[in-house]
Amino acid sequence: MGVDGVDGVGKTTYARGLAAALTAAGRPAIHVSADGFHHPRTVRYRRGRDSAEGFWLDSYDHDALIANVLAPFGPGGTRRYRTAVHDVGTDEVLDLPWLTAPAGAVVVVDGLFLHRDELVGFWDFSVFLAAPFEVTVPRMAARDGSHPDPTHPTQQRYVQGQRHYFAACEPWKRASVVIDNSNLARPVVADG
Fold this sequence. Notes:
By secondary structure, this protein is an alpha/beta fold. 37% of the residues lie in helices and 18% in strands. It has a single domain (2-184), classed as 3-Layer(aba) Sandwich (Rossmann fold), CATH 3.40.50.
């Protein structure tokens, strides 16, 4: 399962809750964040530190996410997975031990850009969490100390990068369900 949406929309919280609910219902579930699969800084910023195109195209190592998480949980997969290969804070490459999921386990992955062409086929079910940037950017700012205004120059790499993603992939059309997560306490299935 994939839980997609823009920065600050609540992907990680939603995915953790979904994995916990599945486990409580008797289906083992493993939560993995795509944040453990960033490219090193040299790749992420090769188009420039402020490049929106670079944010959309170069942030994540999709091949590593596929090899370490998605393929192992796919048809004929080994269920052997790793939760991360890179620490985005330190820029260190990680060599975490391989874990083995129980038979029948569901993997719930949260992250940006999960409905890209190279990833969309891995989801048996996917969620796109939606909320306007005027809601999500202040949430992100409260979390990480960035500027709360989505029009501020320091936010353009992220906001415009996500708009590139919207134009290229229309993730709300590729998702199994779209949930308006503007109010974290009351997510609702979006019309359409």
